[in-house]
Amino acid sequence: MIPRLSISPQISEVTLSYLKILKKSGFTGDIDCDYASRLTMATDNSIYQLLPQAILFPRSTDDVRIITILAQKHEFQTIKFTPRGGGTGTNGQSLNDGIIVDMSRHMNRILEVNLTEGWVKVEAGVIKDQLNQYLKPHEYFFAPELSTSNRATIGGMINTDASGQGSMVYGKTSNHVLGVKVVLVNGDILETGKKTEQEIQQLITSSPIYRTVYDYCKDHRQLILDKFPKLNRFLTGYDLKHVFNDNLTEFDLTRIITGSEGSLALVTEAKLNIIPLPKYRLLINIKYDSFQSALNNAPFLVQAEALSVETVDSKVLGLAKEDIIWQSIKNLITDVAGHDMQGINIVEFAGDDYELTKSKMDKLCHQLDNLMVNHTIGIIGYQTCVELAEIEKIYAMRKKAVGLLGNAKGVRKPIPFVEDTCVPPQHLAAYISEFRALLDSHHLTYGMFGHVDSGVLHVRPALDMCDPEQEKLMKQISDQVVALTAKYGGLLWGEHGKGFRSEYSPAFFGEELYRGLRIIKTVFDPENRLNPGKICSSLNVEEPMLSVDSTTRGFYDRQIPVSVKTVFHGASECNGNGLCFNFDVNSPMCPSMKLSGNRVYSPKGRAALVREWLRLMIQSGIATTELNTIYPKKDSILVGFVKKIKNSWRAKHGEYDFSHEVKQSMDYCLSCKACATQCPIKIDVPDFKARFLQLYHTRYLRPIRDYLVGNIESYLPLMAKVPRFFNFFMKMSITEYLTNKIVGMTNLPLLSTPTLKKQLVGHSTANINLKQLQQLSSVEKANYILVVQDPFTSYYDAKVVFDFICLVEKLGFKPVLLPFVPNGKAQHIKGFLKQFAKTAQSSSDVLAQIAQLGIPMVGVDPALVLCYRDEYKLILQEKLGNFQVLLSHEWLTNVADKVTSTSQIQQTSVEKWYLLGHCSETTQLPASNQQWQQIFKQFGAELQSISVGCCGMAGTYGHEVKNLHASKKLYQLSWQKALAKYPNERCLTTGYSCRSQVKRFDKLILKHPIQALLELISVS
Fold it and tell me: What pLDDT, on the 0 to 100 scale, is given for residue 606?
């Protein structure tokens, strides 16, 4: 039996006292100090792990003031604070062991926009893409770009002075911050902006901060100009150079705070410069025979007056081809016959004058044609993109490159620690040549991509951080790269800030300028209480900087045996890239995270909790085999039941077990499996959730509803024999009350009447059996299809199955309804893995035997059909039978030619149909929407795909009382808004869950696409 995990790192008494008083001091935000919340904030997108004491989620600047003012009390002088935004930093910028102040959950409001003057005012927690989505209808945008733009906050961008694609034209974040509102460590509010010399003279008489920064930067102006490199990606971390303008007539303290990584003050609001969106964007994808050729060609491309020049190597391209992202761009970056594409350069032109913009692209294309004719510099081809949608798809792949590298095969993973070096672009090829030689000397593989126009290349060497020797090698390589960048007049940190790399600051700044940084730190934060260990320390506190070889996640992960990590591979391989924090409500990625804003309920958070849970299990002495098997050891039924009662009673009365925190996180997972495809690392939360639940319930009782849900397929066929009888009782208010209060289920659906069996009475499909099919010739079999039943459509939505059978007949085929065979997906979701394995094996054996007929098997519900391909494969592995069940659109696509030749299309309306995608289908089968559109086109109709997130039902999730509120909110976030925009009678969806959710909350009956097709055709 799984042990109780009663030990977790304690919070200091000082912190507990502080938090207790904070609650009573007018603080309106959230306070989290449970172990689960602290663990989710212990990592970011870097290799490090550092557990904080607590996390505060303020709702306003006033809340932040309360946090800092209370901390001035003598008894709380040792408490330290670190601000956090999206948690996307690659160098541990927001990691610390004090209190984390997270601005992303509540402080995410866009406060004011002034299009006349070209600015917007936002809170620190606003996400970059959220802001641009808001500005797009006004034809403006916030220009600094970065690959994590769908989850990175403005506050985080300011603190790291973020930049990315397009920086040669648009610059860095600091070039677009007009001013900030910050809270100082003593609770004072400081608002910055450009000041004239006259204004500054008034300020320096009253403000020690203004006086100190002004005097130091003016007195050391020449030294600063000499030391700071002449690069587009100028030195970050207290930008001494740009505090003054070139002729020293303006002074802006904003430039000191931008890039300070929260070590000077807590940024709460910002006034940002916004610019008009370019009217025209054009792009060229240039393909090369080697990555070195792509790098060598970069300076030539920079001269083409492009907005940006991005590069991607073959490793990233190869990983992209294995990812869902490739489906959207495979026609935009095609292979070149007879050549091996080893790298690409992405060149974008943008402007408001179409002819001028087009002429620049045409000129470069002409030059590329000449270069290709002369067989020089390794160019093997190129493709142009002139549609905005296509250009955005290309950049979506480029943005995903960071995460894709983490999906490399093997225990060695490309990791960030020297991945944002910057050198003058003219030296980039030579620099990278030496860089590659350095890595090759250590026999390392690596991935590369980046911004060659500004001399920034993201290089991620592949290391196994669970190996202490390779952990040491990471530090050795860091030291070598520091020297290499210095040789070429560059920077170790050209884009992603310093963080744990702050130990190298003295060498880069030099003794005098580094002392200047400390002087500035001292006047802002005299006792070193804000993000200590980053950039520099106060002169009043001799505290060492955090170092590159600080505690990494690998230190903890190596305590889990490899065999256990292999079984729980999703949790162990999460690299923290944070794509699951995507704010877009129309993205299917992790609905529970979207709704709650709580990272404990994200795939990354759940992975972190399970890793720690496994580590603690091993530490407590549990056998590895118990964690690896789907058949854990159990006591006798009676003894086990008594133990579970005792344990559950103790848990109810406050006995601590970290397992409960993991369980709570898992309870809010909808098992939609979007993470398994949308995440670049393919973190399959439902897989390790099922394994966790199975083990958890060897110690604690299950709720009754788990048994009812898990065994639904055993009693549905019996209930369907007398559906009106059961429906009569299900409609009774007393039944609803009892199922609600006792079972914890609500809004349960009614059985189909008439049943599928009755609808098929007298129908030809009812008169054919499998033995007869065996007698048919292969030519005769080609006219048949076998319809595979699932429990939900067959028993709750039988009209869909019946209509599919009718459609098949009208298309000239002969459908045969197979006997119902349990699928077992509900068992998997609830963690009945032993039972699921038996169900899957039985079903697999039956379907494999039927598959020998050579007749296509087709099902209509995506979640259940895809279970055969995913969960069955994971649980059965080599025992999985040889069979395939197609979804209706896959079968229709396969027989498209025959459909066209044997059926007569009857166009009854020129109106469009609208497809709202089922999350499992659109994420696991990314081509499905396009295939449905093509099918409708062949049937003489137009189908438009509507982007929506999760409907909130997800099987039985939405029927559980504890999930009802969340289920409704999720529906309102995306689906309800989408349905309000389109004629409901023309809206379609493939998922039974989606149709039942729409019926429940909007009283609408949506059709399955096959039902719409049935309306469109008639037999010739």
Answer: 97
Residue 1019 has pLDDT above 50, yes or no: no
The amino acid that residue 34 corresponds to is D
The CA-CA-CA angle for residues 743, 745, 748, to 5°, reads 130
Q: Report the C-alpha gap between 382 and 116 in whole angstroms.
A: 41
Closest residue by Cα to residue 717 from 704, 707, 726: 726
pLDDT of the residue at 598:
94
Per-residue confidence band for 634, with pLDDT thresholds at 50, 70 and 90:
confident
Residue 929 near residue 682 (C-beta atoms within 8 A)? no
Contact 592, 500 (CB under 8 A): no
In sequence order, the 6+-apart residues with CB closer than 8 A to the CB of 849 are: 881
DSSP 769-824: -HHHHHTS-HHHHTTEEEEPP-HHHHHH-HHHHHHHHHHHHHTT-EEEEPPP----
Helices of type H across 242-331: 254-257, 291-302, 314-321, 326-329
Q: What is the pLDDT of residues 213-237, one digit of tens each?
A: 999 999 999 999 988 877 766 666 8
Give the whole-angstrom CA distance, residue 131 versus residue 135: 6
Asked whether the predicted pLDDT for residue 907 surpasses 70, the reply is no
**More confident call, 866 vs 409:** 866
CA dist., res. 193 & res. 363, Å (int): 42
Give me Rg for the CA atoms of the chain.
Answer: 30
Rounded Cα distance between 986 and 983, Å, is: 6
Angle at 536 between CA 534 and CA 538, to 5 degrees: 120
Query: Using an 8 Å Cβ cutoff, are 307 and 349 in contact?
Result: yes
Reading the block at residue 204, the tokens are: 């320096």
Domains of the chain: 13-104 (3.30.43.10), 567-701 (no CATH), 713-1019 (no CATH)
Q: What pLDDT, on the 0 to 100 scale, is given for residue 236?
A: 67
Q: What distance in Å separates the CA atoms of residue 661 and residue 64, rounded to the nearest whole number?
A: 28
428-446 burial: b if 16+ Cβ within 10 Å, else e = bbebbeebbebbeeeebeb
Q: End-to-end distance of the chain based on CA atoms, in angstroms?
A: 65
E strand or H helix at 661: helix 658-667
Q: Is the CB of residue 521 less than 8 Å from the CB of residue 264?
A: yes
Has residue 84 got a pLDDT over 90?
yes
| Rounded Cα gap, residues 32 and 404, in angstroms | 32
**Taking the CB of residue 172, how many other CB atoms lie within 10 A of it?**
26
Nearest-CA neighbor of 394 among 382, 385, 405, 407? 385
For the chain, the average pLDDT equals: 91
Instruction: Please give the full DSSP string across 396-420, using - where no structure is assigned.
Output: HHHHHHHHHHTT-SSS-EE--SSTB
Q: Is 848 left (phi over 0), alpha (psi -120 to 50) or beta?
A: alpha
Residue type, 331: N
Pairing between β-strand 987-988 and β-strand 913-916 as defined by DSSP bridges:
parallel
Contact 690, 829 (CB under 8 A): yes
| Entry pTM | 0.93
| pLDDT at residue 633 in the model | 76
The four Cα atoms 922, 925, 929, 934 give a dihedral, to 10 degrees, of -170
The separation between CA 349 and the C-alpha centre of its own chain, rounded to angstroms, equals 29
What value does the mean pLDDT take over residues 313-336? 88
**Coil, strand or helix: which one is 21?**
helix
Amino acid at 886: L
